[in-house]
Amino acid sequence: MESGYILIIDSDKEFLAIAIEYLSVQMNLNNIIWAVSPEEAEEKMKIYNPKVVILDLGMKKLRGEEISSVINSSENSPVIIMTSIYDNDDYLELTHDLGGDGFFRKDQIKSALPKLLEFLNSDHHNDHPNNDIFGDKSYLLN
Question: Rounded to two decimals, what is the model's pTM?
Answer without folding.
Answer: 0.78
